[in-house]
What does this fold into?
Amino acid sequence: MSTKTRQPNHAGHLGSAATREWLAENTPPFVCSAGEEQRLHSIRVRAYDLWEQAGKPDGDADRERFWSEAESEIRKPPARG
It folds into this structure.
């Protein structure tokens, strides 16, 4: 019986090696402002969550789809009320 504690595997837990690897592979390389960096972080987290929910498929088309969907959600202006 193992005494090793299992780490949570969800978008809120971004410390795992697999998560860092996925983010590194799915983040466009460019320089941006601090505000834009925060938005990109939010997009990365959301894209990772979408990827996990889809069963962690492999392939560039899926990565681009998750990134695009997350970007649309994050960049969408807030609803006026």
Q: What stands out?
A: Confidence is low (pLDDT under 50) at residues 1-11. DSSP finds three helices and no strands in the chain.
